[in-house]
Design brief:
Elements: H1 3-27, E1 37-43, E2 46-50, E3 57-58, E4 61-62, E5 70-73, E6 76-83, E7 90-92, E8 99-102, E9 106-110, E10 115-118, E11 124-125, E12 131-132, E13 138-143, E14 156-157, E15 164-165, E16 173-180, E17 188-196, E18 202-213, E19 218-224, E20 230-232, E21 239-241, E22 244-246, E23 251-255, E24 262-266, E25 272-276, E26 286-288, E27 293-303, E28 310-314, E29 320-327, E30 332-337, E31 342-348, E32 350-352, E33 360-363, E34 366-368, E35 377-379, E36 388-391, E37 393-395, H2 401-434
Parallel strand pairs: 16-27
Antiparallel strand pairs: 1-6, 2-5, 3-4, 7-37, 8-36, 9-10, 9-13, 9-32, 10-34, 11-12, 13-14, 13-31, 15-29, 16-28, 17-18, 18-19, 19-23, 20-25, 21-22, 23-24, 25-26, 29-30, 30-31, 32-35, 33-34
Helix pairs in contact: 1-2
Length: 437
């Protein structure tokens, strides 16, 4: 038999494999985050007919020249089937749980027994609130508590059910507006404020602004409450400013007589304790003082115009249930709650590999790490070489149809040429058989 016939057979097999890879690429042209493959060929084996010989000289005279080796190749084999992890375009979907990775990295998913990795971010929420892939694998990351997410801990399934935001006690009250400078001495302006206890319960307190001295533009302020569940201690502290006595106040304010601007909130007030009825609530007492009752120096004035005192900013809020979720570029799950507040309650993890081409495809748009991919480096998106997330978008397949169709022509012509090797070898063998006739 002729060696060329076996070479032709190996060529048919190699180009058939090439066509298999091209066909799979084209079939997945619209698969989410699909990574195309390519085939490379290499010589299979070379038979040595005559080895090489070095030049020689005899007695200083010209000898024989060197001889190159004589070898005959015995066909082609597959060198590699490489997965191309190059980037591609992103498709906008406007689905809140659709995510695309911009840069390196893979989502970490689990079926409950093994860890896999994927670039396909077409996630959905199941009936238990778990964020899952299209085939039911859990998306892994870290869950937090009270707005704190520890991303150094063990991975866990991202779950978006029974997420509740605890209430927070009021820790800051900022006033702005105007006190009417035309009000006579000892006149009082009252303003009601809703504050929250440590369990998020609401309580109403009243600030009383009293004009103490007209010539020095001094006002005192005190806090009281008609809330039956709340008791405010009667102010007993007295202050002295520029010879003016300010009695039984929680604090006082001094304004510039020429501009009406606040010169400063005066008086070092000890803690004002808003005591809660222990028989009606288990919350802690509310503590306020001059550290967290503030008056805007630019927006709190005393001028000859109507009184417009109001609270510009107040800390604290009631409890709230999760109403909506947004995912940012760093993989953080930001919850919008029924109390009008937002809170970070979870983070989606990404894994990076030193050699992503060494990952093994396991179907369903997923990969497993292999001995040549390196160990996964898991962490927060956008950190340590991991890409950031494009939200409400999906990564498209990186199949280039123009290249695939060109490679298809190359594979077809290569297959045809190798079939001609077999046909021609057969005809030569037929001629050899015919020598007998």
């Amino acid at each position: 038999m002729m060696r060329s016939m076996f070479s032709g057979v190996s060529g048919l097999r190699a180009h058939q494999l090439m066509m298999d890879v091209i066909g799979n690429n084209i079939a997945n042209v619209n698969t989410v985050a699909y990574k195309s493959s390519r085939v490379t060929f290499q010589e299979m084996y070379n038979q040595m007919l005559k080895p090489a010989a070095a030049p020689s000289q005899a007695g200083g005279r010209m000898g024989r020249g060197g001889i190159n080796p004589q070898q005959v190749g015995l066909g082609v084999s597959t060198g590699s089937v490489d997965v191309i992890h190059g980037g591609t375009s992103v498709q906008r979907t406007d689905v809140a749980t659709d995510l695309a990775i911009e840069g390196e990295g893979f989502f970490v998913v689990s079926d409950g027994t093994s860890i896999k990795y994927t670039r396909a971010g077409n996630f959905r929420k199941d009936s238990f609130g778990n964020l899952t892939t299209a085939n039911g694998h859990y998306v892994l990351g870290w869950m937090g508590e009270d707005g704190v997410v520890d991303t150094s801990g063990a991975l866990q399934a991202i779950n978006m059910t029974n997420i509740r935001m605890n209430g927070k006690a009021t820790d800051r009250i900022v006033f702005e507006g105007n006190l009417d400078s035309d009000l006579p001495k000892d006149n009082e302006v009252d303003y009601d404020v809703l504050v929250y206890d440590s369990l998020g319960g609401q309580h109403q307190i009243t600030f009383h602004f009293k004009k103490v001295d007209t010539s020095n533009n001094i006002w005192s302020w005190t806090v009281s409450s008609d809330d039956p569940d709340l008791a405010v201690g009667t102010p007993t502290q007295s202050f002295v400013y520029e010879g003016v006595n300010i009695d039984d106040a929680h604090g006082y304010l001094v304004f510039d007589g020429s501009t009406g601007k606040l010169q400063g909130d005066k008086g070092q007030v000890p803690n004002i304790v808003l005591s809660l009825d222990p028989d009606k609530t288990g919350a802690e007492d509310i503590i306020i003082n001059t550290e967290n009752i503030l008056f805007s120096p630019d927006k709190f004035t005393q001028t000859s115009s109507n009184t417009t005192v109001k609270v510009n900013e107040i800390g604290g809020y009631p409890p709230g249930d999760l109403e909506n979720v947004e995912i940012d570029a760093m993989g953080r799950l930001i919850g919008m709650f029924t109390n009008g507040m937002q809170q970070h309650f979870g983070t989606i993890a990404l894994a990076r590999f030193s050699n992503p081409s060494g990952l093994s495809k396991v179907g369903e748009n997923m990969f497993q790490n292999s001995t040549n991919s390196g160990n996964p480096i898991v962490g927060v998106p956008g950190v340590d070489g991991r890409g950031v997330l494009n939200t409400k978008a999906l990564e498209m397949s990186n199949v280039d149809l123009s290249r695939e169709f060109t490679d298809m022509i190359i594979a077809q012509r290569g297959f045809q040429a190798n079939s001609r090797i077999i046909t021609t070898s057969d005809e030569m063998l037929q001629e050899l058989v015919n020598l007998k006739r």
